[in-house]
Amino acid sequence: MPPTSRPIPRFVAEPPHELEPYGRWRETLEQHFRTACEAIETDEQLGAAGEMIWFPERSHGGRVYIPASCDTAEGYELFGYVSFVRSASSPDPGDFFVQVDYTSETAARNPGWTMDLNDEVIGPWKGPGKAEGDLTLVWGTPLVPGGTVATAELGPDTVDQCALVQSDGFTLIALDAVKGLGDDDYLEVKLWNRNGDLLATESLYEAGD
After folding, report:
1. What is the DSSP letter of 194?
2. Tens of pLDDT along 55-112?
3. What is the DSSP string of 81-93?
4. Residue 133: how many CB atoms within 10 A of its CB?
5. What are phi and psi of 127, to 5 degrees?
6. 160, 11 Cβ separation under 8 angstroms
7. Rounded distance, CA 72 to CA 76, Å?
8. In Å, what is the CA distance from 158 to each residue of 40, 59, 129, 194?
9. How far is CA 69 from CA 30, 76, 128, 185, in A?
10. How far apart (Å, rounded) are the C-alpha atoms in residues 185 and 30?
11. What is the rounded CA–CA span in Å between residue 196 and residue 10?
């Protein structure tokens, strides 16, 4: 094949190995996540956090990322991820890092959404010449029935995918906001059914961004 004009990384993360934490491990993750939520500095009255929803884990660069979200008593959503290092030499995970935030833009307040998405940049990408982008963790839940696979699409390229197996949630790691390779490319998430039919497309950006 001839050299490509789009030398971008694709499928950079390991596929999910555990779809949802359970038992003591879930309790440990929830403790990290709730502690970080309680430390959020804001003038808003967020209210008490409800039941945690966990999404499939993904691994990249030696770190494991497990996203989560929960609704609060005042109608907000807390969202973020717990990240840690898990090595072959040590059975216990370590070097925990938690990223959390909140939003009032929830699926309940946006009936036109087809997917409920959250995202966080987890690192920069430097490509050839002046090319650059954001390595981004994306997680979400379909709001239309029938989906079996979610994909991350950057321009003409599929750069990651995650099957919806035991739960409705999916997690992706992919480049976003890529510049310097011609037209700027921004990530879209697409939902597909088992027959390969496209059910929904959502951008990480609001119209006008």
Report:
1. T
2. 999 999 999 999 999 999 999 999 999 999 987 776 788 899 999 999 999 999 999 9
3. EEEEE--TT-SS-
4. 25
5. -105, -165
6. yes
7. 5
8. 35, 18, 23, 17
9. 10, 10, 36, 27
10. 35
11. 20
